[in-house]
C-alpha cells in the first residue's frame, strides 16, 4: 500500500547499525493515547525526541490534530495534555485514531496461524473481476483499493486473483459502494497466467516477493535488536558475529541522535518504532500461504522475533501506559 507522506512526518537520523522506520509525528501522538483517551505532553515530547523529531514538529502536528477535531489541547508544551473532544462525533468524522499503526487484528492472527501451520492452503485460487463505468469512477477505485489491499494481485485489466478466501470482504465492499452488480467472483484450482501454471511460480510472478521479504528483514533486524536474541534461521549467523560491535544491552538505536530519555520514555519510543515497522511490513503483505513461498520465509521469522520483542517491551511498559500495548497484545494473541 502506498500513499503520500504526511507533511508532519519525521526525518529522524537513521542509526548506522539499525534501519528504524520513519515514523510520522501524528502516528507517535496516536500511539501514546492512553486508555482514557488522553496524551501526556511530557511523554509525547520525550518520545518524539527519542525518535529524532523536533519540538517544532510536535507543536505543528498537535496544532493540526486539534484543528481536525481529534483532540482538545489543555496547557502548553511539555505541561500540556491532549484530551478527546467533548463531541465524539467530531473524532469519528476525522477518521481512525490509529492510522497505519495497528494492522487489522484478524489478519495479524491469520498470519501467525499460517506461520504455525494452522492455515494450510486448499489449492483454490479466488478471482475477482469488475467493470465499473467511468461515471462511478470513485466507487471503482475504492473497490480496486479494497481488493488489492486484501492481497489480491492484478492479472490483467479489471481481473485480480488471490489464494486467500477474501470473497465475503470483497462482496460486502462492492455492495457498500453500490456496484455489486458489476462484480464477478470465481474460484478455481486451474489457474494459468501467460503459460505459468505452477502455484509457486505463479506466486513469484504475481507478487513482489523480494520487496515483501525486504520489509520483513528490516522488521527482524529491529525486533532482534530489542531482545538481543536472534530468531530461528537467523540464530546461527548471529552467533558467528557475537561480540562484534554489539552494545550488549539490547539497545535498538532509539535515541542515537544524542537525545537522552527516561527508562519509560525509551520503552515507549522502542514500542512505537516496533509497531511502525510491523505495520510497514504487514500492511502490504498479501499473506500468501506458506506452500507458495520460499522457505524459510522472512515474514515468519520476523513475526516470531516481533512477537518476542513485543512481549519484552510490554513487560517493562509503564503502568497506565498507552493502549497501544493492549491493542498489540490482542493482535499478537
Automatic annotation (TrEMBL):
InterPro entries: PaaX-like_central, PaaX_C, WH-like_DNA-bd_sf
Biased composition (Gly residues): 240-257
Residue ranges constituting the Transcriptional repressor PaaX-like C-terminal domain according to the UniProt record: 282-317
Segments for region (Disordered): 227-257
GO biological process: DNA-templated transcription
Domain called Transcriptional repressor PaaX-like central Cas2-like: residue spans: 119-191
A Pfam family annotated for this UniProt entry: PaaX_C
Coiled-coil stretches: none
Name listed for the protein in its UniProt record: Repressor in the phenylacetic acid catabolism
Organism: Streptomyces xanthophaeus
Amino acid at each position: 500500500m502506498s500513499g503520500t507522506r504526511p507533511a508532519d512526518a519525521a526525518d529522524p537520523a537513521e542509526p548506522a547499525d539499525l534501519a528504524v522506520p520513519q515514523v510520522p509525528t501524528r502516528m507517535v501522538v496516536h500511539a501514546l493515547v492512553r486508555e482514557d483517551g488522553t496524551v501526556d505532553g511530557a511523554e509525547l515530547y520525550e518520545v518524539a525526541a527519542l525518535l529524532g523529531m523536533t519540538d517544532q514538529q510536535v507543536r505543528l502536528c498537535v496544532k493540526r490534530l486539534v484543528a481536525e477535531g481529534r483532540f482538545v489541547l489543555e496547557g502548553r508544551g511539555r505541561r500540556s495534555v491532549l484530551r478527546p473532544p467533548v463531541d465524539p462525533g467530531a473524532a469519528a468524522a476525522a477518521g481512525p485514531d490509529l492510522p497505519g499503526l495497528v494492522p487489522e487484528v484478524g489478519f495479524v492472527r491469520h498470519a501467525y496461524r499460517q506461520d504455525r501451520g494452522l492455515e494450510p492452503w486448499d489449492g483454490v485460487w479466488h478471482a475477482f473481476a469488475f467493470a465499473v463505468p467511468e461515471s462511478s469512477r470513485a466507487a471503482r477505485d475504492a473497490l480496486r483499493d479494497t481488493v488489492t489491499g486484501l492481497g489480491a494481485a492484478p492479472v490483467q485489466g479489471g481481473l485480480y486473483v488471490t489464494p486467500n478466501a477474501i470473497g465475503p470482504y470483497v462482496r460486502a465492499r462492492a455492495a457498500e459502494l453500490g456496484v455489486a452488480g458489476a462484480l464477478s467472483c470465481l474460484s478455481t484450482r486451474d489457474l494459468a497466467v501467460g503459460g505459468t501454471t505452477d502455484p509457486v511460480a505463479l506466486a513469484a510472478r504475481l507478487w513482489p516477493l523480494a520487496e515483501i521479504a525486504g520489509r520483513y528483514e528490516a522488521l527482524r533486524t529491529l525486533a532482534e535488536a530489542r531482545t538481543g536474541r536472534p530468531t530461528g534461521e537467523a540464530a546461527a549467523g548471529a552467533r558467528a558475529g557475537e561480540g562484534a560491535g554489539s552494545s550488549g544491552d539490547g539497545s535498538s538505536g532509539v535515541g542515537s541522535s544524542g537525545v537522552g530519555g527516561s527508562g519509560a520514555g525509551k520503552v515507549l519510543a522502542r514500542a512505537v518504532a516496533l509497531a511502525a515497522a510491523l505495520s510497514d511490513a504487514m500492511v502490504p503483505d498479501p499473506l500468501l500461504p506458506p506452500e507458495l513461498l520460499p522457505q524459510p520465509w522472512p515474514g515468519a521469522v520476523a513475526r516470531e522475533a516481533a512477537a518476542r520483542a513485543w512481549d519484552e517491551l510490554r513487560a517493562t511498559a509503564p503502568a497506565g501506559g498507552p493502549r497501544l500495548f493492549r491493542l498489540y497484545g490482542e493482535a499478537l494473541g
